[in-house]
């Protein structure tokens, strides 16, 4: 067993000279080599697919498990070499409490954070997108704002409605506190009729999200990297002043 | 067969437990990896759980890589 392992490691080391492992690599990913670069002071957290919370989803779903991300966020906060964090978002939403947990974690990190909404940042993706210091949305990305809903067993009593209403208030409060959108406007978008087929809510596209004050700017990777470097420099200057 | 029901798909066709049990989150060479156990006992890498963008350039951690 051990011998096999060392043999495999040897194979990995001289991949270029060993055609079989190269063929395997091409079969796996359709590529043979990737460039190496020096350490980065900016880390990237991608939130893709569904935000998975209390219930484990079947394997065919693409999910981001919040219990994986929370320790990573702590590690980013503690590591001195990491100066900034970029959040990449392409999510359909998911567990409300898991999403809010992630949002609060990102919002309370002391290091500069920038988010980019790519493709979609729907429902619980909205608080995650606005939780950063500065947020970007690419022109083609959309964000669906809609009231929260429950799946599974629901007890048909007025208290259930109150519970849902309170949970919704938590989302609304978070979004209005961390972005420039007014509470009235956000609620108006949330309860709008006729925009989504047979559903309540609004689908906000790129530039509209900026117009409503939900997102700070329309832009992609270049703008986000420029902004995060700017924020890092500001942060460094502030720290320098404290020491003096 | 068409089912017209308000129940969710998973309530009618529950997923088998082994769909979950062959997927693991492991620490391999200091990196957290999400892997799927194959029938022959090998593990193939599904997802690298890292925030360091440089880790994703490391060809050892490309998705689909067989480990052990």
Structure explained in plain terms:
The complex is a heterodimer of chains A (about 240) and B (about 70). Chain A has helices at about 1-15, 20-30, 65-80, 95-105, 125-130, 160-180, 185-190, 205-210, 220-244; strands spanning about 40-50, 65, 85-95, 115-120, 135, 140-145, 200-205, 215-220. Chain A is α/β, with parallel strands linked by helices and about 240 residues long. Chain A folds into 2 domains: about 1-35, no CATH class; about 40-244, 2-enoyl-CoA Hydratase, Chain A, domain 1. In chain A, helix 5 links the parallel strand 4 (about 115-120) and strand 5 (about 135). In chain A, helix 3 (about 65-80) packs parallel to helix 4 (about 95-105). Chain A is globular, with a radius of gyration of 22 Å. Chain B has a domain at about 20-65. In chain B, strands 1-2-3-4 form a 4-stranded antiparallel β-sheet. In chain B, strand 2 and strand 3 form a beta hairpin. The longest helix of chain B is centred in the N-terminal third of the chain and has 5 residues, at about 15-20. The termini of chain B are far apart. In chain B, about 10% of the residues are buried. At the A-B interface, helix 1, helix 2, strand 1 and helix 3 of A face loops of B. Chain A: It comes from Virgibacillus oceani.
